[in-house]
Amino acid sequence: MEDKSKISLKDAISIGIGGMVGGGIFAVLGLSVTLAKGGVPISFFVAGMIALMTAYSYAKLSVAYPDEGGTVRFINEGFGYSVFSGGLNNMLWVSYIIMLSLYSSAFGAYASSLFQITGNVVIDQHIFLSGIIIISTFINYYSIKVVGEVEAFAVIIKLVILLAFVAAGFWGITDNPNFQQLNPENWESPLQLIAGGMVIFVAYEGFELIANSAPDIDKPKINIPRAYYGSVIFVICLYIAIAIVTVGSLDFTSIGKAAEYVLAEAAKPKFGQVGFTIISIAAMISTFSAINATLLGGSRVNHEVAVYNELPTEFTRSLWGKPFGLFIIAILSLVIANSIDLESISTSGSAGFLIIFGIVNYIAFKKAKDVGANKVITLIGFICCFAAFFILTIQQSKNNLEGILTAFLIFTLCFVGEWLFQNHLKNKIDKSVKK
Asked: Which residues are listed as membrane-spanning (predicted)?
């Protein structure tokens, strides 16, 4: 009999799907098509396979170490408390901030295009993206319950609209002349296809939220693995279907021009302005819910890292009744979203999570005997994550050097900052001992 106080398998899968089908697919689909052209479904498949292998490692670690800290706990279990583990956990925290910037940028792009096309009013997208971060921050400070209600409502709305978009898009798609764009002769090189998948890898990262809920999942040994695999496989199929419909509906030139709101543009050939409006509203609801959830999740990660003395203890304190980190995350997100372009934000987010997921795969490999993991699967996951990271780095260094340098600068600061902080703590302890 199911324990009503626990999270059911259905709800656990919903957490994974809700985490992945947030703002990522709305934000970066156009970018991926620009890189992979007609081979974009292959790009999503490759990225999905890496996510699925990583989900295997997460499932094993979540069962062995159920903790609200999730990834933070896994990293500390794998490497102990050190500058390296602290730097990695700070990277995870910063990656949440980058994701928040990505979602708000997507919200701004869809909101701006919707006003411009339906109301003939030109409003800078930075006004929208800044406004939604501020509004979401107020909501998080006001009530966590409201955040949960927004998320539950948004998951249903975005899935219904996306599934309807896919179903309608496939109807008669082979008669559309743009369907020929999916032929192999329109694919980019294998390296470019992988790079296209890695730039949009952020669209898959949300499954790791299941780890934070692991302590409350009913029948954990059975349901935790099912939740990971079920959510990731469903989203892989959904993303591939969306990619096929998009490339089969619009020519590459149109996709390039509407890269930041391409899903709404892809609805126009079949549904006209009404379709554009519905998808734009769905994107705004989806990214709004993703911003709310990421603010909450990021503040919790921030608090957890500070509890382990890998960030200053000030981050464990409250500000207006909520974690101090919530305010810091909101401020940093406003700065990043308003100063860095969408491709660079996406690159930084994907690079960060590829490194984190590669490390989690390594930890599962290292502790295979303790957690009951298959060493071959975890090793392949580790290799694939870092191979994908290097391919992304090479590709972006040619086309978006600023983006990759931004990512490296941000992540270097995570480790340098942790090293300085740990030295500060050591000196503080030494002075205390001498007294």
From this structure: 12-36, 42-59, 79-103, 123-141, 153-173, 193-211, 232-255, 275-298, 319-339, 345-364, 376-395, 401-421
